[in-house]
């Protein structure tokens, strides 16, 4: 299965395009533009890198593809529609690609790659969203429970707080008001007979 990377949607001459790169084989990449109906494509390989080594200043095809992707992501490209091709200028280099319209069968294949890649991406994003939503819900429930426990502890009536404290039995002979002092016997006074 080929590796496909959508980089941007752009407008040129009143038309919308999607620009992406797709790895075809080990060292062969396709640079593709589509308007959803027609597809234009060119091949970028080691031979291309060797021919334009002075212009692109990249050691190998992987570095060149990374530079092309970065230029496309930051929308540093210009599309010029000509009769039989699209001319694509990329980045700050004098780097130009001529993308030619593909045949009907290749168009179907390219659009099929693109549609199934979008479907895979959508499925993956939905799964990641469900996982994220369940984590958010779990954290929200934990936060509500901790807030409820904290609020209950803060605003608990004094009677409940006292009821949780262990009850001390009053020792015989101690004062109710001041438990640390002994209860004094009431004065009997002098008895006169």
Description:
The chain is α+β, with helices and mostly antiparallel strands. It has a domain of 101 residues: DNA double-strand break repair and VJ recombination XRCC4, N-terminal (Dna Repair Protein Xrcc4, Chain: A, domain 1), CATH 2.170.210. Strands 1-2-3-4-7-6-5 form a 7-stranded antiparallel β-sheet, with helices on both faces. β5 and β6 form a beta hairpin. It is rod-shaped, with a radius of gyration of 39 Å. The model has no long low-confidence stretch (mean pLDDT 79).
Please summarize what this structure is:
The chain has 193 residues and is α+β, with helices and mostly antiparallel strands.
Strand order of the largest sheet: 1-2-3-4-7-6-5
CATH domain class name of one domain: Mainly Beta
Q: DSSP helix count?
A: 5
> What is the averaged pLDDT score?
79
Give the proportion of residues in helices.
40-55%
- Name the overall outline: rod-shaped
Distance between the termini: 122 Å
Keywords:
7-stranded antiparallel beta sheet; 7 strands; 193 residues
Give the secondary structure arrangement, pairings included.
Layout: E1 3-12, E2 15-25, E3 28-34, E4 39-45, H1 46-51, H2 53-56, H3 61-73, E5 77-81, E6 85-90, E7 95-101, H4 104-154, H5 158-164
């Amino acid at each position: 299965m080929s590796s496909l990377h959508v980089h941007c949607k752009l407008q040129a001459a009143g038309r919308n395009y999607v620009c992406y790169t797709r790895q075809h084989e080990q060292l062969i990449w396709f640079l593709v533009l589509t308007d959803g109906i027609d597809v234009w494509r060119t091949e970028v390989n080691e031979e291309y890198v060797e021919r334009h080594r002075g212009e692109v200043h990249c050691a190998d095809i992987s570095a060149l593809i990374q530079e092309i992707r970065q230029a496309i992501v930051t929308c540093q490209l210009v599309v010029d529609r000509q009769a039989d091709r699209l001319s694509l200028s990329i980045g700050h280099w004098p780097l130009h690609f001529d993308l030619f319209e593909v045949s009907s069968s290749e168009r179907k294949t390219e659009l099929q790659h693109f549609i199934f890649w979008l479907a895979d991406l959508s499925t993956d994003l939905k799964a990641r969203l469900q996982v994220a939503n369940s984590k958010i819900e779990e954290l929200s429930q934990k936060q509500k429970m901790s807030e409820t426990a904290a609020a209950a502890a803060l605003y608990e009536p004094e009677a409940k707080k006292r009821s949780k404290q262990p009850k001390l039995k009053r020792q015989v002979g101690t004062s109710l008001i001041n438990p640390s002092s002994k209860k004094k016997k009431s004065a009997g006074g002098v008895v006169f007979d």
